[in-house]
Q: What sequence folds into this?
């Protein structure tokens, strides 16, 4: 039986997760690491990178903006946007996005561990992943936004929605199970995105 490159990659990730769980003591007495199968392993999507003429990475890797309590606001870095609704923060707050690996669709959000009074929207533009999705025969609904769980030492899927870039902005956090977009961002054109809600900051990734 032929083993595909993707199957081999997922098997390697599963083995690495087991080794890390044993070697670093992932989980605690009250929150033990759970056994997982290869089908449950989430891995960040690869990301085509821009190189300069010397072969060095030429992409901007960080972005930040001050967010005010009464107006909220947005921060965008490449494919990733944070939408903070009004009254999510108590004071003017410097929100930061950092791409921690130029080869993967992962970001670290700051201030690290910050909790919000209202959930914020994490929005990923899929234009950057069009070639990968075509090669893997994926559609937007196959993708998920994942958060890295430090107790479990693995990526955990968030409830992820599909929408248009010019529709997904401030989101009503009180409408469940399907939050409804409220308003729109000032984008030049629409495009497919995936998005999720989170009450706090951590490390996030786009996965299939």
A:
């Amino acid at each position: 039986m032929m083993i595909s490159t993707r199957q081999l990659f997922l098997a390697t990730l599963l083995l690495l997760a087991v080794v890390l769980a044993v070697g670093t003591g992932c989980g605690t007495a009250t929150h033990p690491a759970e056994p997982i199968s290869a089908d449950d392993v989430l891995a960040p999507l690869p990301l085509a990178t821009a190189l300069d003429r010397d072969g060095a990475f030429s992409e901007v890797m960080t972005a930040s903006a001050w967010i005010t309590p009464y107006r909220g606001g947005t921060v965008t870095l490449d494919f990733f946007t944070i939408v903070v609704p009004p009254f999510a923060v108590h004071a003017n707050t410097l929100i930061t996005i950092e791409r921690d690996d130029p080869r993967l669709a992962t970001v670290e959000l700051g201030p690290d561990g910050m909790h919000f009074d209202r959930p914020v929207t994490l929005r990923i533009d899929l234009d950057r992943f069009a070639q990968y999705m075509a090669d893997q025969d994926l559609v937007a609904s196959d993708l998920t936004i994942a958060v890295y769980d430090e107790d479990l030492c693995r990526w955990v899927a968030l409830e992820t929605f599909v929408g248009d870039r010019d529709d997904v902005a401030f989101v009503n956090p009180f409408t469940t199970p399907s939050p409804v977009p409220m308003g729109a961002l000032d984008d030049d054109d629409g495009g497919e995105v995936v998005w999720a809600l989170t009450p706090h900051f951590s490390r996030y990734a786009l996965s299939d």
Remarks:
- The CA atoms of residues 145 and 206 lie 5 Å apart.
- Confidence is low (pLDDT under 50) at residues 8-24, 28-39, 172-188.
- The radius of gyration is 18 Å.
